[in-house]
Design brief:
The complex is a heterodimer. By secondary structure, chain A is an alpha+beta fold. Chain A has one domain: Alpha-Beta Plaits (2-Layer Sandwich), CATH 3.30.70.1060. Chain A is 33% helix and 29% strand. Classes of the chains: A alpha+beta, B alpha+beta. At the A-B interface, strand 1, helix 2, strand 2, strand 3 and strand 5 of A face strand 1, helix 1, strand 2, strand 3 and strand 5 of B. Strand 6 of chain A pairs antiparallel with strand 3 of chain B.
Chain lengths: 141, 138
């Protein structure tokens, strides 16, 4: 099973403040453990929402709003993609994570859809296409 | 530059839209992203009932199982794209197909380049391992 493990933002991350040396080292070690365990598929930090935008969809209308966005606690500051056997295993790994925002942090764990999850409407043709897409995108990485 | 496009909706917890028109339009959109050389990764997320939140506070860990009531900010899926500018990323976001009858928003966020944020060596190694893993598991 694959999970997106989302680090929620904080005042510091929204201010573009870099984590200190100790936290960077602890994170580096944690990421190495994830790699050794065969869990880590991806890891990225996000720039503050001041560098971002939102596109609102309403019928045929598209409205673009530039960041920053106010609800700090609900914003994404970074994420991992992990391959594990269960949600419980993902939770155990998160408990071992050095506190990513250095003070009080929230990490949200969300399961990724696999092609097999889409049910009968996702025809074999659509599923095959998704696998091809993923394989070609992986080469780009 | 890399950007994350996050699909956010109040209806994410209803599950992935199943109608064939939408799925076909989404398929074409993803192909367009691929042909433009912009697509890096994409996925839908299961409803938050399948998820959890872990709160870390001064050595104390609290785990809360989903679902999460504040559905306005729930993420339903994402694309990871590589493009020349934020403007280009926003243009892609505007073109994304949307299912009928759902209130949706796409948040476009810039990703830190390797070396800007995390020690380069650890992340490059992780990417290499991640690619090998993904290739083995598909």
């Amino acid at each position: 099973m694959r999970f997106m493990v989302i680090v929620k933002a904080s005042k510091d991350s929204e201010a573009g403040k870099m984590p200190g040396k100790e936290l960077l080292e602890a994170m580096g070690k944690f990421n190495e453990e994830l790699v050794k365990a065969g869990v880590l598929l991806a890891a990225d930090g996000l720039h503050a929402s001041s560098k971002g935008a939102r596109v609102k969809f309403s019928g045929n209308k598209r409205t673009v709003i530039d960041g920053p966005f106010a609800e700090t606690k609900e914003l994404v500051a970074g994420y991992w993609i992990w391959q594990v056997k269960s949600k419980e295993e993902a939770i155990e790994w998160v408990k071992r994570c050095p506190n990513p925002t250095g003070d009080e942090g929230v990490v949200e764990i969300r399961q990724l859809f696999e092609a097999a999850d889409f049910g009968p409407e996702a025809t074999p043709e659509l599923r095959k296409k998704e696998e091809e897409l993923r394989a070609r995108a992986a080469q780009k990485k | 530059m890399r950007f994350l496009m996050l699909v956010k909706s109040t209806t994410c917890d209803q599950g992935a839209p199943q109608d064939e028109t939408f799925l076909t339009a989404m398929d074409k959109y993803n192909e367009d992203l691929m042909k433009a050389g912009a697509l890096v990764e994409l996925s839908g997320l299961h409803p938050s009932s399948a998820g959890a939140r872990v709160k870390l506070s001064k050595g104390l860990v609290t785990v809360t199982d989903g679902p999460f009531p504040e559905t306005k900010e729930l993420i339903g899926g994402f694309w990871l794209i590589e493009v020349k500018s934020k403007e280009e990323a926003v243009e892609w976001a505007k073109r994304a197909p949307m299912p009928a009858g759902r209130q949706v928003e796409i948040e476009v966020r810039q990703i830190y380049d390797v070396g800007e944020f995390v020690p380069r060596r650890a992340v490059e190694k992780a990417r290499g391992e991640g690619k090998k893993l993904a290739a083995r598991k598909t």
